[in-house]
Amino acid sequence: MEPLLFWALETLLFNDFQPSSSNSPFQNMLTDVTNQLLPGSSQEAPSGPSNIAGIDQAIQQAALSTGLSPALLKAVATVESSLNPAAVSSAGAIGVMQLMPQTAESLGVNPYNAEQNILGGAEYLKSLLDNFHGNLTLALAAYNAGPGAVDHFGGIPPYQQTQDYVQKVLSTYQALASSPEST
């Protein structure tokens, strides 16, 4: 199978099928096939929680550690990966919080470990909020497009994908924050 076609199939399956255990035969098979077919793919399978309760718990821990709202972290994770610890973007972003490998390395986290990925994403978002003086909109734009792009354009970059991303995260955050069972 062509690597791009396989990637599309894998993405579809990972986004639509979330097994309750990170060690399911289906997920192991996909990881093995991915490692065989895609050059440069990681030899490391995702670890940590793959169920929503485990992801929620990791988000709560990261929120406590960073002082960020759990609803904000869950909104970012939802928009980034649909809370999928096995998600890998076409740009190479990994896991629940879709960390780029260089970002994960600079944060000292393993992006394939769901707890570390979530904590790393929370720490990165917190640093962006600090960098942009608490401006959530700019921090979210920087999370998506990079802080250099936000600096270069003096605000949200004129990229449709980034503009849509910021709006999706903000609306998801608002919905989560106002729900009675919000995290």
Structure description:
It is a single chain. Residues 1-9 and 11-43 have low confidence and may be disordered. The longest helix has 19 residues, at 160-178. The chain folds into two domains: 3-37; 52-178, Lysozyme (Orthogonal Bundle). The termini are far apart. It has nine helices and no strands. The protein has helices at residues 3-16, 25-37, 52-66, 70-81, 101-107, 114-131, 136-145, 147-153, 160-178. The protein is globular and about 40 Å long. It is mainly alpha-helical. 63% of the residues lie in helices and 0% in strands. It comes from Sulfobacillus thermosulfidooxidans (strain DSM 9293 / VKM B-1269 / AT-1). Pfam families: SLT (PF01464).
Secondary structure topology:
Layout: H1 3-16, H2 25-37, H3 52-66, H4 70-81, H5 101-107, H6 114-131, H7 136-145, H8 147-153, H9 160-178
GO molecular function: peptidoglycan lytic transglycosylase activity
InterPro entries: Lysozyme-like_dom_sf, Transglyc_AS, Transglycosylase_SLT_dom_1
Domain Transglycosylase SLT: 58-152
Poorly predicted runs are 1-9, 11-43
CATH topology of the largest domain: Lysozyme
Content of β-strand = under 5%
Shape: globular
Largest sheet: number of strands, sense, barrel closure:
none
Q: What is the CATH architecture assignment of the largest domain?
A: Orthogonal Bundle
